Amino acid sequence: VFFVKVFFFFALWHEATFVVNVTQSSYEAEENQNITLEWTFTSRTQGSYRELFIYCEAITDHGVFVIYHMHKGVEIPASQDDQFSGRVQIDKDVLREGRIRLHVSRLRTEDSGLYLCDVMTDYGFNSGRCRLKVTGEKKYY
Predict the structure, then answer these.
(1) What is the CATH number of the domain that holds 130?
(2) Residues near 32 by beta carbon (within 8 Å), at least 6 away in sequence
(3) Three-state DSSP class for 77?
(4) In the chain, N or C: fewer CB atoms in 10 Å?
(5) How far apart are CA 118 and CA 52, in angstroms?
(6) Per-residue pLDDT in tens (0 to 9) along the chain, 141 residues
(7) Which residues make Cβ contacts (< 8 Å) with residue 139, sequence separation at least 6?
């Protein structure tokens, strides 16, 4: 019983030291524009990301959609929902710095919603969230 309690305490402490934050809690853009959503996570500069797991999804009025998935440092494009296919790219150069930059192109009003990003490394697990509001494209006559 003592071992279980110590292990449980260590697991909670370890998770609490790993943090995922959003650089902005809310984004606004117009239809057909591009946007970059950004999260930061606790990283060690010498850390290996062979164990990096990233799972980002959008919760919208039209459903829940996988927008990006990486498992053990390898992108899994087959798990991306069709609504976002070809419209989401990640900036891999900043992952080692503990940054996730998701570029979403050709925004649609139905992309509006809550965006969640789960991150797990050999250092811990946590998640961050932000909101995106996409308004109709303004027409100038």
Answers:
(1) 2.60.40.10
(2) 106, 107, 137
(3) helix
(4) C
(5) 11
(6) 433 333 333 444 444 578 898 889 999 999 999 999 999 998 765 556 677 899 999 999 999 999 999 998 899 999 999 999 999 999 988 888 889 999 999 999 999 999 999 999 877 889 999 999 999 977 666
(7) none
